[in-house]
Amino acid sequence: MRSDAAVPLHLAQTAEAALGRIDPAVARILDRALSGEEISSADALALWQTTGPELQALCQTADELRRRAVGEAITYVVNRNINWTNICFTDCSFCAFGVSAKDPSAYFHPPERVTQKALEAWERGATEVCMQGGLAAQLTPQRYLEYLRAVKDPLPDMHVHAFSPAEIDWAMRKWEGSLEEYLRMLREAGLDTIPGTAAEILVDEVRREIAPKKLMTARWREIITTAHSVGLRSTATYMYGHVEEPRHLVAHLEVLREIQRETGGFTEFVPLGFIHYNTRLFNEGDGRPGPSFVEDLRAHAIPRLYFAGLIDNLQVSWVKLGEKMSQLLMWCGANDFSGTLMEESISRMAGATAGEYLAADRIRQLVWEIGRVPVERSTTYRHLRTYPTPGVHQPATDIAPHPALLGAA
Ligand code: SF4
């Protein structure tokens, strides 16, 4: 039953509540979130059932919490993805990127190729390289260190965001020292932050189904918390729209919230919708054909409420969502457009069609169109340039070309 009388005061400020069409149970959860109270996992599970006016109200609530947390800025980073190899032994059923070493499409970049790509990225204004790859036999702990030096030696100011917990786990299989020791070595060699990928769903029941050879939840958590403890912050992610159920998504969010309370090391949360077209999970298994429209809305809005006061930044993955859906989600709690990428293989191989490169001026245009303010950021969300005036591309500040590109180093 729905009634005006049951709609609490804070929620009455939203358009849907004003119409009195909100289920009182949902209204109470949203009101608690707007009052600054933490929502429980049971609340999050209830929100995963919303549709119609309740889902609209959820999105409005997420939008209001976004406004309070980070204002009207929509941030983005100028970055380049570098995937040094697509050779991978892990064979996750949701992945169309990893191939065996004998596959005709297999490749393996030497460190010199990584240097070349990083220099090209710097020349195009990138402040970050995001480097990940398959789990290939050739990738020793030393090789990962060489990849770091391949970027940092010529470009000490380039932020290196690299090595998922799965890659760190892979390196540790051939490393005789401790995890902490290896992470400190990576940091000293130039690693700045790590991607919180390879998370998929942090529930072993799901992991055993979609990625049985990959690290399980406890190991993922150990690697992330140890990385945070040595000063390597990370992103946080989940992958939705495949075999998982809402209870798995909530359990996943619970793990991340516990970690964030403990370490404060997550810079942002990034929902990643499953791209199904070329995957074994969809074509031979039980995987759903990616998330529906309403799942995309919930998958972004609910974390904005669930992480309120703990993780301020909520990122859209334009490569999976496309431009228009990314814009819409900026009204459902999101505040970050992710990066320009320059090259992207993982979603593209799975069948995503949004492209490999979104130029910074295109991102700014998309942000202006929805009445917000584009801001170029660093990887760790330091604002570098603000573009308050639509159509005016001159930044307020600029970054000088690196000496290596001027022939001075
Ligand atoms: S998701 Fe990563 S670990 Fe799994 S098969 Fe693909 S490249 Fe390998």
Describe this structure in words.
With 409 residues, the protein is α/β, with parallel strands linked by helices. It folds into two domains: 4-70, no CATH class; 73-386, TIM Barrel, CATH 3.20.20. The chain has 17 helices and ten strands. The chain has helices at 15-18, 24-34, 41-47, 52-70, 111-123, 141-152, 165-172, 179-188, 204-210, 217-229, 246-263, 280-283, 293-306, 318-321, 323-329, 346-350, 360-369, and strands at 73-77, 79-83, 128-132, 159-162, 193-194, 233-240, 266-273, 336-339, 373-377, 383-386. β6 (233-240), α11 (246-263) and β7 (266-273) form a beta-alpha-beta unit. α7 (165-172) crosses α10 (217-229). The longest helix has 19 residues, at 52-70. It is globular. The model is unreliable at 1-5 and 394-409 (pLDDT under 50). The chain binds iron/sulfur cluster. Iron/sulfur cluster binds next to loops.
Topology:
Blueprint: H1 15-18, H2 24-34, H3 41-47, H4 52-70, E1 73-77, E2 79-83, H5 111-123, E3 128-132, H6 141-152, E4 159-162, H7 165-172, H8 179-188, E5 193-194, H9 204-210, H10 217-229, E6 233-240, H11 246-263, E7 266-273, H12 280-283, H13 293-306, H14 318-321, H15 323-329, E8 336-339, H16 346-350, H17 360-369, E9 373-377, E10 383-386
The structure holds iron/sulfur cluster (SF4).
The site of iron/sulfur cluster (SF4) has 12 residues, from loops.
Summarize the structure.
The protein is built from 17 helices and ten strands.
